[in-house]
Amino acid sequence: MTLAMTPVEESQLFDFLKECSEKVEDMLESLLPQPDDELEESRLFEAMRYSVFAGGKRLRPFLILSTNQLLGGEQTPAIEERAVRVAAAIEMLHTFSLIHDDLPCMDNDNLRRGKPTCHVQFDEFTAVLAGDALLSSCFEVLADFQTHPDASIRAELVRIAAASTGPLGMMGGQMIDMLAEQREEGERVVEQGELARLQRKKTGALFQACCECAALLNHADKMVQLHLQSYARNVGLAFQMIDDVLDVTGTKEQLGKTPGKDAIANKATFATLLGVDGARRQAEALCEQAQEQLAHFGPEAQPLRLLARYIVNRSY
Amino acid sequence: MTLAMTPVEESQLFDFLKECSEKVEDMLESLLPQPDDELEESRLFEAMRYSVFAGGKRLRPFLILSTNQLLGGEQTPAIEERAVRVAAAIEMLHTFSLIHDDLPCMDNDNLRRGKPTCHVQFDEFTAVLAGDALLSSCFEVLADFQTHPDASIRAELVRIAAASTGPLGMMGGQMIDMLAEQREEGERVVEQGELARLQRKKTGALFQACCECAALLNHADKMVQLHLQSYARNVGLAFQMIDDVLDVTGTKEQLGKTPGKDAIANKATFATLLGVDGARRQAEALCEQAQEQLAHFGPEAQPLRLLARYIVNRSY
């Protein structure tokens, strides 16, 4: 099993990513409130759209739609439509987390995906409200009849997304991250295990939720669910390790954000704990494990396999 | 129909409020994550609990439980239990909105319910995350099987709560409010209709959602739903009008927060637009209309009737 990618495979993955982005962006366009000069609150709608449409790889939608393809749902238009709606909702949730993470009181980032962050483009209160509104909207979409005719599926989609975001999920991870940054040099006791725990919550929980939601839409059996969860967990952690590596080795042009921020903040990352090469090697091991989870599947698993390889090969 | 309250009626309402607070606080205690010194993210759990248990009248839970009583649900322990869970979830959502409203970039309030606001007691990033986590947790509770055995009810509870919070609800209202505050004196064109629209979104939408959720738990018919919606809308708007009046006439000790902030911010309120007496009179008219919506009910509507009268009689 090799992780290296041929140019053909890379362009195959980019085609998958592009197709997925287009579907999800069309759906987001129809789901997000339309700006309207007659309405004062229109500024909120603009800010929500600004951040949602600021680019990004749409990895979480890709995870959902690729898992849906893996499980055969893509071949039934009704199921594919549901998966696209869920993917759009989860991308709203992800965008909420980016907007709030970038706030001055959090990571204080001015640049995201090569564009001014929401609070820079608008202002701080608009960014707080836009994030809040996107989080609410995610759940409104998931609970909507149009997302699935079976209410037990809708309620379960909400539960999965909310649990991955709440105090035991992403918000808990973000809290650990902020506290770790604030520690004095001398008290720094961040170890690899602690960092992995943080990142499993901060990034991994939502990656895993994506695969769980797609499994739910396809009534996947328990065994398949476990393989997918393990795939998502490994890919999520590897993704974060490479993110840390790129913060050391990448350029602003490649990343679309300011590199070296971790070093300036004197932050413990996988790159500082394991070294750039060590972090890369661990990410590779995780992506190999992720691929093994897909061993029982055929060519329908190709997008998920390519994603696991792309994550360690990406330069932005 | 009189709005004045005898001391007996007032103490009857306070008993209702107290009983309701106790039920909901016990439920919140069991639903919110337990602080644990072993966990770094425990600070997040502490902040969530700090703000949730900082007092407050628990008016939204009261609306839910009183509507549940009105519709007979209180007499079936299973339905009462569901209503208490929904009330706890909505109180989490309400607390989220208070924490974020108080942030330096929003209303910049240091005092709430007589105590330091979340970002003062903890810090700003903790307050942002605690709000986010409470919002997520609300939906996680509503979508949970324990809240209702019928998934279509669970999904609908989520939809109602999310719609009342999102860009067309509370977040939209907060955006209009923030923009109105920032306008230059000369451009100030806030009129009563605009202010009512703002407040219907900012406060009214969630009040209405409370009655809708309780109606849903009791399978109330369309006519009853409409009466309850109208009741909640009127009571919500009256509540805000008296809030504005109290900001002019109340003391810090009475209010548990700094009065006169609207005047300092040169903010258009019902008190500035209609005068203190005018705002009070309008609030009274709204509360009378609210009471009329309950005309077809018997003594089981007593808590909701007393609430409508209390709102114009309260001094904090």
What would your notes on this structure say?
The structure is a homodimer of 316-residue chains. By secondary structure, chain A is mostly helical. Chain A is globular, with a radius of gyration of 19 Å. The first copy, chain A, has 14 helices and 2 strands. A two-stranded antiparallel ribbon of chain A has the order 1-2. In chain A, helix 1 (7-31) packs across helix 3, helix 1 packs across helix 4 and helix 10 packs antiparallel against helix 13. Chain A has helices spanning 7-31, 42-52, 59-70, 77-102, 118-121, 124-143, 151-165, 170-182, 192-217, 222-249, 252-255, 261-264, 270-292, 302-313, and strands at 111-112, 115-116. The mean pLDDT of chain A is 92. In chain A, strand 1 (111-112) and strand 2 form a beta hairpin. Chains A and B meet through helix 2, helix 6, helix 7 and helix 8 of A and helix 2, helix 6, helix 7 and helix 8 of B.
